[in-house]
Fold these 2 entries.
Entry 1:
Amino acid sequence: MSIRFIHTADLQIGMTASGSGTMASALRDVRVQALERVLDTAREREADFVIIAGDLFEGNDISRELVRRTASVLQHSPVPVYIIAGNHDHAGAESVYRGNEFNPGNHVEVLLERAPRLLESFDTTLYPCSCPESRSDVSPVAWIRKDTATRFHVVVAHGSWTGGPRLQENDYPMSTDELEGLGVDYVALGHWHSTFPDPDQRPHETFYYSGTPEPTGFGERDSGNVLLVELSSDGRKVEKIPVSRYRFLDIDVKITGEASAADLARKLASLESPDTTLVRIRLQGVASLSAQEAIDEVIEKEQSRFAFIRIDDSGMLVSPGEEDFAQFAPGGIASVTFRLLEKREDIDPRLRSRALDLAYRFFKA
Ligand SMILES: [Mn+2]
């Protein structure tokens, strides 16, 4: 006897990707498509069922149209789907799952109650730990008592493992001891957007975060995967499968002179699949005005090849170098303005750098 299932979570359907400009609507749509890809993967890999460990939706107040579209994707699922409510789409009175728009069909079960669910045909007990509200400082798995009626036991919960960096105290905390003490075959967690731990490196952990199947923003270490879990009398196998369409990539540029723009151009040119890559370029250091201009030119030229390019220049100071001054007549109005601004030690350096930048652009034009 063996079973295999797909573990996913945090699709965050309805998420508005702020600050992504013209990409915003594509990024909203791709989250529904991510659900399709999860179900396609279930079909391709011959999974028996799919587990969604919370936050299928970004909130309980998302548009009816999006709820209907999601339900319609689930209607076409080739296998049963078991869903718990996360902190975003929590099981409270206003839950999206209690509304009339969400009709995914009988093969899809939203397990809002914390009670064992016996899957007889798979010889498996699920222990679903839906979030009853958006925040709680109580462990979501505290109620579980292992039932001995089936061969396999799988916990499905949404919250924060206390062994990691925690942003909030009331984030449905779960400790290592507690999770290990459950004595089950697998703990499927949701809430963290990156896969953790990585089953390729740590195949024998008690719990795993699948992470979101489609990245939700910059700074996610290992998002865009689902986990394929196989339980059998021989033991357990957990496989990480990448399924994402877009990737969010950080490029750090340390400005060291005129060559920095060429470095950036080389880096951007070497990236694969630019049309599905969102790039955040973090500029660091002190740039001369012409170095900054050269970087702007590179970005301008590359912009259309990429899905999106965002510039973070909060770590960069612009300061005119000799090559900047050399373009203007000594003693002329431009040179005098630069020198006057440079001397103003009383101004916040960031403000001074902005003023220099503007003055340079003004005189250059
Ligand atoms: Mn969450």
Note: The first strand starts at residue 2 and ends at 8.
Entry 2:
Amino acid sequence: MPSYCILGRIKLRYTINEIINKYVSDNLKDIDFTRNDILVITSSVLNTKKDKLLLDLNTRILEQNEIDSITNNLNKYYFEKIPLQYITGKQNFFNEEYVVNENVLIPRQDSEILVEEAIKYINNENLNTMLDMCTGSGALGISIANNSNIAKVTLSDISLNALDVAKENIKLNNVKKDIKVVCSNLFENLGNNKYDIIVSNPPYIKSGDIKDLDEYVKKEPIIALDGGVSGTYFYNAILKEAKRHLNSNGLVIFEIGYDELEALKSIISKYNEYRYIKCVKDLANNDRVVVIRYSGN
Ligand SMILES: C[S@@+](CC[C@H](N)C(=O)[O-])C[C@H]1O[C@@H](n2cnc3c(N)ncnc32)[C@H](O)[C@@H]1O
């Protein structure tokens, strides 16, 4: 256990509620344990859904190994700054639950906007084939597959470890569509395949900003974060090649950083084959999702 961990071993028998109250009220300097954080960790340790746990708060006596495990996980979360989702191994996203680990970015609520937008276009325009490039955990592609009329989906990523997680998530979410997983550096291993729609949430943080990120975010894979010097490396690289992989009138939908819309518009304007359609804002009113039409053939 690292020397800065200050939660020691508890040796008494506690109910769930007592352990929560103990940690919430414990007089630990600068630590703000919330009931919810402890509930999430406890439900993961006991492998019980949170709503079921709430019914057992005052009756279920915790075993010593369960208390130790809760304490260890709280230490990881608060002192080692490991994201809660890596500790529980799960993240809810859109209508699905996803397995996550340190090999994938934790899917963010903001990305649900991209999923909603893609579903609208797929259903309105009867689109059949989709590529989710830079798929990570597979969250975007799998949620779109499960909630739209898309028929055929490819999930691609450069990281084999991330794709193992994506495969697990395809099974976990019982995807009924024709779905495959391809390890590829951008389009390198995608042959001559063409798609009606390409969605992507590529790495988009400026390399120089990585060192200033929140400690929890820094635990996510650098390969999922680093978008090059200007943050926009991947938008240009993807658009440059996407022309060869889009069916006529196809679409590209990107997630972008809050300050990247103008840079992306200027990249789009370099190519005659693409037309900027719109930008959708996130809940905090930041530019977040950009829709681009391919007007070549
Ligand atoms: C920001 S994460 C997005 C993950 C997921 N789509 C999501 O929204 O939660 C970016 C992903 O791009 C992948 N990636 C980085 N460079 C790549 C490349 N050259 N080719 C393909 N994928 C790449 C990373 O492995 C990572 O999984």
Note: Residues 103-294 form a domain with the Rossmann fold fold (CATH 3.40.50.150).
